[in-house]
């Protein structure tokens, strides 16, 4: 006998979380919980404001409709909304045992520009020292100076940078001008520096700083191809679609010799633990980008190892179905 439940949740965010000039005060989403005989599976559906193509209202209607059909025994296609497709496919993958339990709970720490704090964090990290830093929120010159400072202060550090298409070609060049050419090879990649892919490609050629595609993966005209200066793709499954679509993108990138990185779109602790399992399964040699739990004030249902945040149980969720 099948049983499907859908829950709504909301987590207060730490003050100061800004996405595309929008302050994010709470993180809102859904869980779907599927049970069949003795097996069960969970999935998270949490469209990210300013980034997802669908709203939470649209995702809620789609997930509830799919859950009712599944509970009634019908084999419905996935709704076609990226967040809903990924969450439902994860629940199904847990239910049938496709999603392995082994997880990669390492995460490239988010860097705020304090070399002492970052050094303490990195000292405790096994293996390669990698951190992630958001750029494009302030002046490009300031970003360049901060990146240069960190790379100079921490000689074994490698950085992943994310600009979210914030820069014009001029601002991107201003950033690069303040990064010592000797340090640029220690920038693993810079995600989407410019507003167009052609400008980002030109930036990579002119500066020697490797770039990665992120938002571009969700553009209708994007195709995977090997390009000079393009080193990686950053895959945010909650914005991408089903688990099968994520697998396909990883396979395409890997076949071209590109690094595929599983990255968070600010999921709850339950969603992050699933992403850690996806990363261990599909990108086992690559450090995932999952260090976003620190932006929240609580965990939900499943704990992230080592987190001191309180963890709320199922009873704290709002049942919709």
From TrEMBL:
Residue ranges occupied by any Mandelate racemase/muconate lactonizing enzyme C-terminal domain in the UniProt entry: 115-210
Binding sites annotated in the UniProt record for Mg(2+): 162, 191, 214
A GO molecular-function annotation: magnesium ion binding
Pathway assigned to this chain's UniProt record: Quinol/quinone metabolism; menaquinone biosynthesis; Quinol/quinone metabolism; 1,4-dihydroxy-2-naphthoate biosynthesis; 1,4-dihydroxy-2-naphthoate from chorismate: step 4/7
Coiled-coil segments: none
EC number from the UniProt entry: 4.2.1.113
Family matches, as Pfam families: MenC_N, MR_MLE_C
Active site as annotated: 134, 236
InterPro entries found in the cross-reference section: Enolase-like_C_sf (IPR036849), Enolase-like_N (IPR029017), Enolase_C-like (IPR029065), Mandelate_racemase_C (IPR013342), OSB_synthase_MenC1 (IPR010196), OSBS_N (IPR041338)
GO biological process: menaquinone biosynthetic process
Cofactor(s) the record lists: a divalent metal cation
Catalytic activity of the protein: (1R,6R)-6-hydroxy-2-succinyl-cyclohexa-2,4-diene-1-carboxylate = 2-succinylbenzoate + H2O
Signal in keyword set: no
Keywords (A to Z) from UniProt: Lyase, Magnesium, Menaquinone biosynthesis, Metal-binding
UniProt xrefs under NCBIfam families: menC_gam_Gplu, PRK05105.1
PANTHER family, sorted: O-SUCCINYLBENZOATE SYNTHASE, O-SUCCINYLBENZOATE SYNTHASE-RELATED
Task of the protein: Converts 2-succinyl-6-hydroxy-2,4-cyclohexadiene-1-carboxylate (SHCHC) to 2-succinylbenzoate (OSB).
Family that this chain belongs to: Belongs to the mandelate racemase/muconate lactonizing enzyme family. MenC type 1 subfamily.
Protein name as catalogued: o-succinylbenzoate synthase
Organism from which the protein derives: Phytobacter massiliensis
């Amino acid at each position: 006998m099948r049983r499907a439940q859908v829950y709504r949740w909301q987590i207060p965010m730490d003050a100061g979380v800004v996405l595309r000039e929008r302050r994010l005060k709470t993180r809102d989403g859904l869980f779907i919980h599927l049970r069949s005989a003795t097996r069960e599976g969970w999935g998270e559906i949490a469209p990210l404001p300013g980034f997802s193509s669908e709203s939470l209202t649209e995702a809620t209607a789609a997930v509830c409709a799919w859950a009712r059909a599944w509970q009634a025994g019908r084999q419905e296609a996935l709704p076609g909304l990226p967040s809903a497709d990924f969450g439902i496919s994860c629940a199904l993958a847990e239910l049938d045992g496709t999603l392995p339990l082994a997880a990669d709970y390492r995460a490239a720490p988010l860097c705020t520009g304090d070399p002492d704090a970052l050094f303490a964090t990195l000292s405790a990290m096994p293996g390669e020292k990698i951190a992630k830093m958001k750029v494009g929120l302030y002046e490009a010159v300031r970003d360049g100076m901060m990146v240069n400072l960190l790379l100079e202060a921490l000689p074994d550090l490698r950085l992943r940078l994310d600009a979210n298409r914030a820069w014009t070609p001029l601002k991107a060049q201003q950033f690069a001008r303040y990064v010592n050419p000797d340090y640029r090879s220690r920038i693993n990649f810079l995600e989407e520096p410019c507003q167009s892919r052609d400008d980002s490609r030109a930036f990579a050629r002119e500066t020697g700083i490797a770039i990665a595609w992120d938002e571009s993966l969700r553009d209708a005209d994007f195709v995977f191809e090997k390009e000079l200066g393009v080193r990686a793709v950053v895959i945010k499954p909650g914005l991408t679609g089903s688990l099968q679509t994520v697998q396909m993108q990883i396979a395409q990138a890997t076949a071209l010799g590109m690094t595929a990185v599983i990255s968070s779109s600010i999921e709850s602790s339950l969603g992050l633990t699933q992403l850690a399992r996806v990363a261990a399964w599909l990108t086992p040699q690559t450090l995932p980008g999952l260090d976003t739990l620190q932006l929240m004030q609580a965990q939900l249902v499943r704990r992230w190892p080592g987190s001191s945040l309180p963890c709320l149980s199922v009873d704290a969720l709002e049942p919709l179905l």
